[in-house]
């Protein structure tokens, strides 16, 4: 597991989906395998513990980050 | 040999002559029509204050037979008259009239034909369909019968109950036709949509159109094959996606749309895409939404058409990937200024299949189905091989929007694409027709060497059969046959050898039908029937021309069950074409029956 920090955004290409704009400028499509997407966290700085899923693809077409835990920072 | 009644021979002969005349005249007529819109009159706008005396003097001076255009033309003095000058003299003649101070201007009264405009009430908001010149394309084709697989989050196409979650069809897919698909996420044969993305994509391709409801789709005569490989959140694993591609190719898809992807060039995915293309499937794929020049996959594979997105101004959308790996661009929307600049279709609410509406989406996901729909229209015009479909898309794209902006060949133009596809099919048909005539000449020459003559060459039945079997009525591909039933159009312009494939929308040629087997059977059964000899000879020669034509054409003609690559398919066709021609040579000899039996 790795920790990613950044700001949550609404996905441009996956309506209703969520994206993390990380501190390094990269954007990750967030995959919530264990629960609902945190809609009220859009625009907030967060810290996400999760792993990159290179075995998956999606509508957003960015790198996919499977979320283990998400915390506002 | 028993002869046909003279009257019947004349009718058949005239029909054949008309067909051959159309064959040679059609290209010239078409290109002239494209260059100059037709007109039979000249419209003359006079100065508003011209007096009746001045009008009479003007008419007498130039010999003009001017009449008011309508009962409302008096105020503007808008007159018209028959166009009695040659087109070559027209410019000088109009300049002469316009130079007269009593005439504001004179110009041809062009006849404008009404393109097909669907009655869907929200069609006017679909700027993205107008951008690709779709109304012109619809005059020619609607993609009837072509099978387009939508590999996505599923499609809201049927009523289904999954563990208490009730799914139903969205209203604007009610007249859309579907073929069975598969859900690889839940492993069941009900690929219904629990996200909304797949239904939106399917709507762009084949939304029910001209049904007085909602929005229109591009190839609304096509059949959608829903394949669910993405979850309700819009994610899926590469194994499911690869299996979805293989399943679609094995179950009759002619086009696959994949509005999905990632940055990793997974080998499993590459193999599945290559397999589908080898089976004759055209793959349209979204280029990705990371605003980068780095290839995304599957779009970045050689087997796929990579589609970038543009907004309503025709500029590359700010999110769209770009670069020299892009094949073409298509409208994907750009909602940075306003919502209505997205792509509008009917779909379910996000992860809520119980509700539906019309939503503007944006992304290369939305651009790709524009290309998949265009591909269905091109295939429906008779150009079926994936490389040919891609070539037509690129040739017809608007070049001014292309290379300098890293958008491949530019924004697709479906109106031009169906015209080019029709011409391509026409040229291939003519090539096979000429090949058939060449084989007849070789037969005649061989007979002369033996001091014999080939019987039946004066028969209309011979030439008609040669045309229908060798090339089909290929000249029909230049005509606007959008209002014909799709199956009839496909049958009429296909060679008889391809009829089964045309009816079943096959992506590969049947190896038995595309062999000398049928000519051998026909000859062995019917050679002794004298009355049928001219028809039989033409059948065998037409068959030979068709097989040799496919063998030596530059396009790839995949034959099912033939292993390996391109060259084995070509070899199969060439060998069987030669066998059919040798058969024709044998049966054209005097005492052909005996030669055949000895052989």
Q: What fold name goes in the CATH topology slot of the largest domain in chain B?
A: Rossmann fold
3D shape of chain B: flat
Task: Note the overall shape of chain A.
Answer: globular
Q: Summarize model confidence as the mean pLDDT of chain B.
A: 86
State the distance separating the first and last CA atoms of chain B. 23 Å
Structural class by helix and strand composition of chain A: mainly beta
Distance between the termini of chain A: 18 Å
Look at the structure and give the mean pLDDT of chain A.
89
- CATH architecture tag of chain A: Beta Barrel
| CATH classification class of the largest domain in chain B | Alpha Beta
- Assembly type of the shown chains? heterodimer
Q: Work out the helix count of chain B.
A: 18
Catalogue the unreliable spans of chain B.
6-37
The total count of strands of chain B amounts to 17
> Please, how many domains of chain A?
1
Report what the structure shows.
The complex is a heterodimer of chains A (73) and B (599). In chain A, 0% of the residues lie in helices and 53% in strands. Chain A has 73 residues and is mostly beta strands. In chain A, a hairpin with a 4-residue loop joins strand 2 and strand 3. Chain A is built from no helices and six strands. In chain A, strands 1-2-3-6-4 form a five-stranded mixed β-barrel. The model of chain A has no long low-confidence stretch (mean pLDDT 89). Chain A has one domain: OB fold (Dihydrolipoamide Acetyltransferase, E2P) (Beta Barrel). Chain B has 599 residues and is an alpha/beta fold. Chain B folds into three domains: 205 residues, no CATH class; 73 residues, 2-Layer Sandwich (Alpha-Beta Plaits), CATH 3.30.70.260; 261 residues, Rossmann fold (3-Layer(aba) Sandwich). Chain B is 42% helix and 14% strand. In chain B, the strands form four sheets. In chain B, strands 5, 8, 9, 10, 12, 13, 14 and 15 form an eight-stranded parallel beta sheet that branches. In chain B, helix 9 packs across helix 10 and helix 11 packs across helix 17. Chain B is flat, with a radius of gyration of 28 Å. Chains A and B meet through strand 3 and strand 5 of A and strand 11 and helix 7 of B. Strand 5 of chain A pairs antiparallel with strand 11 of chain B, so a sheet runs across the interface.
